[in-house]
Amino acid sequence: EKHVRYIITVEKVSYSIRKLTCCPDPLPQYLQKKDAFESVVMEHLRMNGAYWGLTTLDLLGKLHVVDQDEVISWVMECQHESGGFAGNIGHDPHILYTLSAVQVLALFDKLNMLDIEKSVLEGQISAFLVHDDLILIHRAEKNYALGLRSTLTLYSDIASLQNEDGSFSGDMWGEVDTRFSYIAICCLSLLHQLDKIDVEKAVNYIVRCKNLDGGFGATPGGESHAGQIFCCVGALAITGSLHHVDKDLLGWWLCERQVKSGGLNGRPEKLPDVCYSWWVLSSLIMIDRVHWIDREKLIKFILDCQDLEQGGISDRPDDAVDVFHTYFGVAGLSLLEYPGVKAIDPAYALPVDVVNRILLPHD
Ligand code: GRG
Ligand code: ZN
């Protein structure tokens, strides 16, 4: 019965994603809600919304419903001269949006948009001009040179955010957080450019953010929080440094996040929330302790958060749906190997086939 209920909503979920994200709207005019609340609040973080929505579609086997060229065109328009990406056209760049932009390009197998110089050398540039004239349309004569320059500076832009103690700032204004350590490491790894930063120092800083309870915080001494734990464990996984984690201690803290309803919370005494199906579960998988939680009860909790009429998933049952929780609900189901959902990589937060395409050696 559960299965039937789910299959019906795959269509609904992908439909609601198209309504909620930046993606060129293939919906009939009368169904478009330009002034919708979601659309307004999402304005400054459209790039994250695009990543959440498009990854959800890919996990459900529905990525083809969006116009790939239009999405890529929009993403590239959000790139700043510094090399980093903004949350929307004309906004300031921030590493939070840079990762989403890189992930969206990865979904469409378009990371070569970031390395125009290499594409030229490999003779891919003519294909680029023919099929992806989008950049030329938007930035006319400046574009070709700008592309070349941005390519080189994207890597150095991320690298320039590393501080003396190994930590990372999110942008030129300097806020430091282990979220940014994860993002820098994840991005540069996807781009095969980890050598651009001091990985050892970056790892040492993350280890300094480890607490006595086995968890990790945003900065040294900061309280353990499941979101921060995902970032630190993910960064350690990507850099092959998981030996710094006390797996039993952290696994115990993480599995204690499951509450009576089956849902997971992000810290002791807090309410359960669908997004922790990602932050907690991905961390448990990376440290081989996912069997310490009750799988069936968590699946039920996530499915109970669906809007069966409109599609989409909310933070907890009967709340309003949004693209963030829809993504993390579907990603959680993916980590739980729910039938019909593609596998997602717990460290890179991208479908496994996408990560393999980028990282597995090929001739
Ligand atoms: C690629 C998946 C992916 C992420 C990129 C931005 C980032 C890296 C990670 C964010 C990690 C993080 C801190 C997540 C937590 C988000 C969240 C639900 C915060 C709410 O915290 P509280 O304390 O709410 O306001 P609770 O649930 O504790 O009541
Ligand atoms: Zn949430």
UniProtKB/TrEMBL annotation:
Q: Give the co-factor note.
A: Binds 1 zinc ion per subunit.
**Gene Ontology CC entries for this record:** Rab-protein geranylgeranyltransferase complex
* Domain Prenyltransferase alpha-alpha toroid intervals: 37-118, 153-349
Task: State the reactions this protein catalyses.
Answer: geranylgeranyl diphosphate + L-cysteinyl-[protein] = S-geranylgeranyl-L-cysteinyl-[protein] + diphosphate
Q: Which InterPro entries match?
A: PGGT1B-like, Prenyltrans, Ptb1, Terpenoid_cyclase/PrenylTrfase
Per its UniProt record, the required cofactor names are: Zn(2+)
Could you mention a single GO BP entry for this protein?
A: root development
What keywords is this UniProt entry annotated with?
Answer: Metal-binding, Prenyltransferase, Repeat, Transferase, Zinc
- PANTHER family per the record? GERANYLGERANYL TRANSFERASE TYPE BETA SUBUNIT, GERANYLGERANYL TRANSFERASE TYPE-2 SUBUNIT BETA
Q: How does it assemble?
A: Heterotrimer composed of the alpha subunit RGTA, the beta subunit RGTB and REP; within this trimer, RGTA and RGTB form the catalytic component, while REP mediates peptide substrate binding.
The similarity annotation says: Belongs to the protein prenyltransferase subunit beta family.
Q: What does this protein do?
A: Required for male fertility and root tip growth. Catalyzes the transfer of a geranylgeranyl moiety from geranylgeranyl diphosphate to both cysteines of proteins with the C-terminal sequence -XXCC, -XCXC and -CCXX.
Q: What is this protein called?
A: Geranylgeranyl transferase type-2 subunit beta
Name the lineage. Answer: Eukaryota, Viridiplantae, Streptophyta, Embryophyta, Tracheophyta
